[in-house]
DUF1005 family protein
Amino acid sequence: MDPCPFVRLTVGNLALKIPVASKPARSVVHPSSSPCFCKIKLKNFSVQSAVVPFIPPENHLDSQIQTIAAIFHLSKCDLDKLVGKSIFAGKGKVFLKISIYTGRRGTTCGVNSGRLLGKVSVPLNLAGTESKSSVFHNGWITVGKDAKGSSAQFHLNVKAEPDPRFVFQFDGEPECSPQVFQIQGNIRQPVFTCKFSFRNAGDRNQHSRSLPSESTSSRSWLSSFGSERERPGKERKGWSITVHDLSGSPVAMASMVTPFVASPGSDRVSRSNPGSWLILRPGDGTWKPWGRLEAWRERGSSDGLGYRFELVPDTNGGMSAAGIVLAESTLSLNKGGKFEIDLGANSNGRATPVNSLSPVCSPRSSGDFGYGLWPYCMYRGFVMSASVEGEGRCSKPTVEVSLQHVTCTEDAAAYVALAAAIDLSMDACRLFCQRLRKELCQQLDVLG
């Protein structure tokens, strides 16, 4: 399998120094009491915003610990559009534009509440960044000037680095047992097949019969992570999807271990009682758990699909170790979106790692974003993403997986199974007053 070229453009190590005025004045910004933030814009991409920490003039930046502020993922198509392939390409340059504001983020009566302090433009030369890292800026930039010539100082680091990825696409909806193709440019090559099935409540072992052998310990995983009891009322349960390689061998599985159940007196799966999936990989002739996905239906002005994905530590049969959360966020049930595991993203990202587990970054002379040691430190930066369509829409998920996180076929298959699980969760969390398509229905299901 050959990966597709991608580039990861990161903006980080933000800081702001503002001279302290000798005399109080209305026009002077007092950042100790006025928070600062910025909006970061790259052509053809959505605007991202981030908090800008204030550093007193007497302090050094190296004493501060900061996070990455914004990340832009550029595919080969994105790069071609930005760099330009026409005869007019040389007439235009690519700029990263940053607007810095004082005051809190948000709007009041449709008007931005922050006050513009200044703007910064960083020129980007993206040619060749698919194969070589580039630092476009690392240091301080002057922002605005007052009548006496003093000015604020804005610190940032902007760099691009190669981030090759494998790209897979389902040839149909996961519940229709589709093929999965690897995409590379205009080439589509089949690499996996999926088999959707139901697991009856009284046959917890049925899902594993495709493996050559089965042990008692493997069956205990389902009962440990899921619920063995029969739940009265409206529920969706027993869904399972197995990923096979082209030889027909099972290489990954997503199995619903906790039913998606309507909360008492309602037609929705609540956050307090989510359904869950176990993502499994084959090992030693049996299935071994790799990750756990929980999903529920969020309340709000527009309903959303809430989710939480965690790694399951390999404890050699023990069950005491806690899972490690890699992603927790919300997708629009109407428009869909992207399920993403990106351990360099901040709260603006589609995926938000738990703060205590998120890699930290500290400004260094090289402009590098250093990652701290933490459990499962092999998972860092961009890990994977999967497209998810909204309710009632035809869904053929596209899955991107970072090259650094794929060392064998089973690695890629596990992410494909996870993508299928998040896509099927969109259906599992539909209101129980709405009927599901026939492929997702079983005679024993209670669909209201």
